[in-house]
Fold:
Amino acid sequence: MKTTISLAALSCVMATSALAQDKTLTISVYSFAQDAYKEALYDPFEEICGCDLVIETGNSVERMAKIEANAKNPVIDMAVISSHDALSLARKDLVAPLDISKLSNHAKLYPAAQDPIGGNMAVGYTFYASSIVYRTDLVEINSWADLLDEKLAGNVALPNITGTQGPLTLMMLAKAAGNDSTDYSSVISSIGESADDIVTFYSRSSELAQLMNQEEVIAAPVGRFAWSRFKSSPLPFAWAEPAEGQAGGMNVMVMTKGNGNEELAYQFMDYWLSTEVQTRVAEALIDSPANTEVMLSDDVADNLTYGAELINSLNILDPAEIINSREAWVEQWNTEVIR
Amino acid sequence: MFFNTREGLALALPAAFFALLLFILPVGILLSEAFQSDTGWTLQGYFDFFAKPLNRTVFLRTLKLGVLVAGTAAVIGYAAAFCIVNLSASARGRVFGLVVLPLMISPVARTYAWIVILGRTGIVNDTIVGLGLSDTPIRLLFTETAVFLGLLQLFMPLMIISLVSAMENIPRDVIPAARVLGANWLQVFFKVILPLTKEGLVVGGTLVFTGALTAYITPAILGGSKVLMLETLLYQRVNVSNDFVSASVIAMILIVMSFTANLLLKRIATARK
Structure:
């Protein structure tokens, strides 16, 4: 009898353990800093939830294509992407509106991050500023317009229109030219006229960091997330504060529609947005916090996009504008700039 | 060799099955996308591709660089191969090893070396400025010249290997015989060496041309988005625009270019008979 009870208890324990192992959350994330994320976010969460995280990485296009291809039977439960990519998924009815009552940390977020694309279809988890990195010993940058100035001819790199930084640069160059509308055709034309004087149109911030460290380029627009690559260089780089201000963007979390794993996904999202995790991720210099309660030392803050004053001052391009106009921008860019 | 055809077929079956399942079938499915529309089979993807000026420019640039790289590799390759086959056996082995050595180094490492050489603070610009040929460094990176040099260095060994192997089969007496009969070196090359090594030239030419067309890393690093080639455009279409139709069109164009180059070279070689 005793043996029977022991066996029954053992099988119960094994079944519970198997159930815990069966709890799996599949997330789709950017491929950078995965070791740091594992330490700051994934491992602690797995301990809390008693579940397994399956992490899928890749660039935005690949990851969005996968979500679209598996729309009827989602393999991804939640994804982190740019706000305009989130809007693109929302328009295709691939993501579900979020029930913010299940996100206890939602109210702690900066207002801009709480409902960035409308309808609670996404929630922001990090901001990034975008400005110009330049060599202080060779040039002075006071305006975004300096990028196309003759004095910098042959020494500037610009981001490609197909990346996240490209449209932000168009917006700021338009502002510098006194154009507050979202019609950037004249800006693209002026970049086209100066195309021979642009060293290259880079796609990745790592590529730009290499070019600037090899002294091929002395000024270029880039996201603040890449600043640590320049800060640690022996060359004198500075982060410009142009008259028109800094551009900015946001990455967001989305829930895929009908994934059947919503409860666990909410638990993970809420954990990621918590003050504890946002602080840990910021201190590891991975992402700038979207949670207003995060307190950082000056040293850490200096590497990130941090603080209400800075975040509220960022020029953020409307995600809808990017989606609506991107095709036309790329078309004009290919005709007049790349040629 | 075989007792019957069935045995021969049975031996070839695993390789054929492997190629069919893992290469011909997926590539066929991918390429067929470029011929499909909602209404059926069409060539519209190709018309749309060539209707865009950027695509035409990229196509012509890829073709031009492919021909230039293959042509230059042939000229330099003949001179190098001629030297190598006339060395003593031990020296030939050592020099041949040097020719093959770059093939053992990753194309990424080899291409990054060009960034160091062609950069503003690189050896070439240091020399140009040092000799007073220019006051300021010249822009060499992200130009067609940089891509050309990178591709030439990348594929030259393939041409040299093909030509050395062809030249080793030339009977030792024919060149001295031609010289004794009064032929100058130019005549020796065009009347004796070239006809006897045309197979090697066809193989080397096809390998270098096809390699230059389909190389991705070198044009991506040395040309960037300012010197787009078909291969870098293909990558952009897939990874940035998620446009598989254009990507299939580009892949098909690259395949057709490679086969055409091989056929043309073979025809030229046959015509010289």
About this structure: Chain B touches chain A at residues 52-54, 57, 115-116, 119-121, 139, 141-142, 224-226, 228, 236, 238-242 (CB under 8 Å). Chain B is about 75% helix and 0% strand.
